Amino acid sequence: MSRPAPTLSQGVALLGSAAAYLLLAYATPRPEFGRLVLLFATAFGAYAWLLYRPLPLRYGLLAALLLRLLWLPALPTLSDDYHRFRWDGALVAAGQNPYQHRPDELMASPALARPDAPLAALYPWLNSPHYYSVYPPVCQAVFGVASWLFPTRALGFVVVLRLVLLAAEAATALLLLALLRHFGQPAGRAFIYLLNPLVVVELTGNLHFEALVICAGLGAMWALVRGRRALSAGLLALGVATKLLPLLLLPLLWRRLGGRAFLGYTALVAATLLVLVAPFMSAELARNVSHSLDLYFHKFEFNASFYYLARAVGYQLTGYNEIARIGTGLGWLVAGLVAAIAVGEKQPTLRTLPPALLAVLTTYYLLATTVHPWYLTPLVALSVFTRPRFALVWSGMAVLSYGAYRSVVYSESLGLVALEYGVVLAVLAWEIGRRKPSVADPAAV
Questions:
Q1: Each residue's pLDDT tens digit, 385-415
Q2: Distance in angstroms (rounded) separating the CA atoms of residues 201 and 134
Q3: Residue 301 placed within a domain
Q4: Any idea what the Cα angle at residue 354 is, between residues 348 and 357, rounded to 5°?
Q5: Which domain holds residue 367?
Q6: Structurally, how many domains does the chain consist of?
Q7: 296 located within any domain
Q8: Secondary structure, 3-state, 328-388
Q9: What span, in angstroms and rounded, lies between the C-alpha atoms of 94 and 90?
Q10: Is residue 318 a part of any domain in this protein?
């Protein structure tokens, strides 16, 4: 029996997506905000149609791959983070520790092991030359390999990173299908993530390593449902060594695994992390990493929601930005709410783990001081297994945050931020009201 081919409308949607991605990849500088929004809206409209009229599984998986391959030879135009990736990678490839010194320190002091001339030429392109590296060991290892292969060619470096992320996305596709099958859900739900424009643009296009985090997190869940806890702990540690975000999964495992098993699981995660961090251990590591985290919570601010409201109140009361106090307060509030979710779940099981984690991460990002668009991609991945669709709306509205780069001088539009979060919070409130989850069961969100 022949498999059904895509319909005409599905084909048009795919062609529209491909055209939008090609223009985004090769003809849309970041300051061109109007064009960026128009193209992203085109891709998102096609995505919405393909969710409404799903492709056959075989063709959908092929489309997800081809839409990502369109970006393969493109230098990122919407993000300049890859310049810092190259800087850190060159240090790793040269046997130096990327966490020990800031770029400006290396360039200013002849006593330090300064990078070679090609890397010195890269220095003016760095967007954070006065900060220590914030990229965890797994990222640094990938940067180092790419730099070793292509020490002076930006495109070669970028292609290596993109191939690594494409491999992670391919593994994510398999893990989504395996978990959906285990939970008794339709395989076509995988396209909620695999065809999402924010996922394609930010992970494949802009080279953000949430692709590895999502892959490792889903791998940890898959190993848990298969009863392979040691493998799960190792994969979770791999995710944490890529971005710290997966640590928020641990409180949700306490009741699911039981006290003794949870302690053993956590010990395995910690031991694996020590192995992954060991190559970069130095006397300065803890100090410099803690300094970077302090900056993240107490200085950086971008595309936030409730934090901006608290900041406005702080200005009225004191006349200056109270981010140091507000950031600390919101951090403690997140910790309390995450604990409440972990303790308040009704009958927590591995099947309810995705919605519980969605609630935890949503809480974290709504109270964060910095929410870059790619931060939201794990929410899209978790939406594959859950009913709420506010994360998909958020993934569509997050493009408005690029309005901050419309001119050479960075200037964030609070009107666009208000529009983004007004829509997202309205949808979230509507979904919560429609389902009316119990206060004691935040995971039902």
A1: 999 999 999 999 999 999 999 987 788 999 9
A2: 22
A3: yes
A4: 85
A5: 283-445
A6: 1
A7: yes
A8: HHHHHHHHHHHHHHHHHCCCCCCCCHHHHHHHHHHHHHHCCCECCHHHHHHHHHHHCCCCC
A9: 6
A10: yes
